[in-house]
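Task card 7
Instruction: Convert sequence to structure tokens.
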Amino acid sequence: MLSQRRIEIFKAIVDEFILTAEPVGSKTLLEKYNLKFSSATIRNDMQGLEELGYLEKTHTSSGRIPSTLGYKFYCEHLLQDKQYLNTEFALQEVFSNKLLNVDDAIRKSCEILSQMTNLTSGALGPDANSQHLKHIKLFPIDARSAVAIFITDKGHTENRTFSFSDDVTVDDIQNCCSILNDRLQGTLISDVLDKMDAIRPILAKSVQRHEILFQAFVNAFIKFASENVYFSGANNLMYQPEFADIEKLKSLMKMLEDNELWKNIGKQDQIAIKTSGNSEFVWLDDVAVVTSNFTLDNDECGKLMVVGPSRMDYDKIASMLEYVSGMIEKSYGKV
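Output:
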């Protein structure tokens, strides 16, 4: 158990490093945080905190930075519940728009979170495979591309743009859409692809370019059924000093594309803690992820996330995520 003095010194180091991204020394702590301890005492306690694994010493400075274990301790014991009125006001504008469905509201919330935090925000939506297909809409963009909109019985909506290898007429697209709706309405999402083989000969009788449309639709549907992870503000990570190394940045961008990783976030062999609120903190090497769960009116669960370097403002981000998840449940959860 850390003494109160070491906790005070440690918290000042974390707060300063989050603010500046620079290793913190005893001189900075004395001048900026008005600690009532001598320079020698602070240095001794910093050494002790390093030996306990809460701080690390860099090669380029005599100062210290928090370790992953240190951030874990900070999030478990030193977080403060804060309000961020500017963010809350912007989010209230989103949820006051009754015309938005839940998917659009979540995406707009993610955009606001990424802007306010200068990090990457994301959402893990409900698993579409447990739902039934209610309706499909196909809209031609031009002779070689179209948009497919998939709507489920739980109100989940997704759109996917797909391209053709040859020209396709508007009539073919409309005929294809009618056949798909007649044959697939009410089908469990996980069973749609199996049903498609039986639909292929029906399409062949009524649609001229049936094979091109069939394959394009199947590819679009596979994406819809498997992708329920959305990120906003991925480019924000380029401006974080921790990811100035191009190889680190490439690795992080590849991580964002790994849907399976995000579907299992916090479930694998990762350092993770849950707060007394509705937040969870997960650390993946140099990357920190703050998450908050929400439940919709059909008992489906989703997850909001903010992704960034371990040096992030955990107080601010946890408070924001909990506020957004609360607004989602208030607007789209059970009455």
